[in-house]
Design goal:
Largest sheet: 5 strands, antiparallel
Number of strands: 9
Helix content: 10-25%
CATH class: Alpha Beta
Radius of gyration: 17 Å
Structural class: alpha+beta
Mean pLDDT: 93
Low-confidence stretches: none
Number of helices: 4
CATH superfamily: Cyclic phosphodiesterase
Strand order of the largest sheet: 2-6-5-4-7
CATH architecture: Alpha-Beta Complex
């Protein structure tokens, strides 16, 4: 099984991202554009995992809690690693500080199971497209600069999810394996 932990986000934001991709796609048809219904905010990519480990992963994630929901604003368009050699186009996610803490808590919970920590800093984003070659992207890079301050909506999340990624010729399909309410109830 190929597993990852992620947050979902509301349909209103998903629809705004769908409109954004419709606007950008004609500028770079060679890109592999992500289907908006498949988007999520990844907290931890676990990767290929033996099915016998699933229950221990599910159990390890259960105790993770936060005193408040994660607040997110989806804003701007940019590139990894940068706009001179783009490999990935993204929509930015400005979030409350507890989003980074939630990702760190997921890392800590899974590390005792032999799942290594991510070496890169946590950078919340939505992947819009991937590029095989960074050539012929000038129009897309210019459009992204014009969209740097564009707002695509907000979200308030209280759950995160363990997903299975099923790779198919038509693209990856995601199946929710478990859902975790991470906000503690106040008495």
């Amino acid at each position: 099984m190929r597993l990852f932990v992620a947050l979902d986000f509301p349909d209103e934001v998903r629809n705004a991202i769908r409109d954004l991709i419709a606007r950008l796609k004609p500028l770079c048809r060679d890109a592999r554009w992500v289907r908006p219904e498949a988007m999520h905010i990844t907290l931890k990519f676990i990767g290929e995992t033996d099915a016998t480990r699933l229950e221990s992963i599910r159990t390890a994630l259960g105790p993770i809690h936060s005193p408040q929901s994660v607040e997110m604003r989806f804003r701007g368009v940019g590139f990894f690693p940068n706009d001179r050699r783009p490999r990935v186009a993204w929509c930015g996610v400005e979030a409350s500080a507890n989003l980074a803490q939630l990702a760190a808590d997921v890392e800590c919970a899974l590390e005792p199971l032999g799942i290594p920590r991510e070496s890169r800093a946590f950078t919340p984003h939505l992947t819009l497209a991937r590029f095989q070659t960074p050539a012929r992207l000038d129009d897309l890079v210019q459009a992204a600069k014009e969209l740097a301050a564009s707002d695509f909506g907000t979200a308030r999340e209280t759950n995160f999810h363990l997903f299975e990624s099923i790779l198919k010729p038509s693209g990856a399909e995601y199946r929710r394996v478990a859902t975790y309410a991470f906000v503690r109830e106040t008495l």
